[in-house]
Amino acid sequence: MIRHFNERVKIMGRISNKDSRSAFEDSFKRATSPMMTLLLLNEKPMYVYNLSQELEKRSNSTYKMAFLYPVLYRLQEQGYVEEFSQEITDSHRTRNYYTITESGREYLRFMMKKYRELLNAVDIIMEYGLTDTVPQSETTVL
């Protein structure tokens, strides 16, 4: 398996650090985008452009998501989000809004708890990796 991977890398060429950094950021955003979306929808119903702008604004332009529709569709299929249309002009133009459901709120609480647990574990591992010793606050007496 590893040999096959190495052969593919030779064929495709070397992966640059920039590509791997971008892949890390993309993976992180992909993993956290449902939680970020539900967090905003937990405040009030929003339309896609509004969601995108809020994410960007609150993150000082760090958390930009170009494709929110797949996230919203997946959350909708899972029953965590509902869509509704609202007339926005006298010419009967409508805008599609998304709102969180009660099961979406439960899922959001679950994701936030898991996120904090994982973040804490990563912090502990990083601290250990930087000092080569287990952090004093994390040691237990048997």
Quick one: CATH class? Mainly Alpha
Strand order within the widest sheet?
Answer: 1-2
- Main β sheet profile: 2 strands, antiparallel
Task: Supply the helix-strand structural class.
Answer: mainly alpha
- Annotated CATH topology: Arc Repressor Mutant, subunit A
* Secondary-structure element string: HHHHEEH
In whole angstroms, how far apart are the ends? 42 Å
Q: Bin the helical content.
A: 55-70%
What percentage of amino acids are in beta strands? Answer: 5-15%
CATH architecture: Orthogonal Bundle
Shape estimate: elongated
Extended strand count: 2
How many structural domains does the protein architecture include?
Answer: 1
Q: How are the elements arranged and paired?
A:
Blueprint: H1 2-12, H2 17-43, H3 48-58, H4 69-77, E1 81-87, E2 94-100, H5 102-131
Antiparallel strand pairs: 1-2
Helix pairs in contact: 2-5
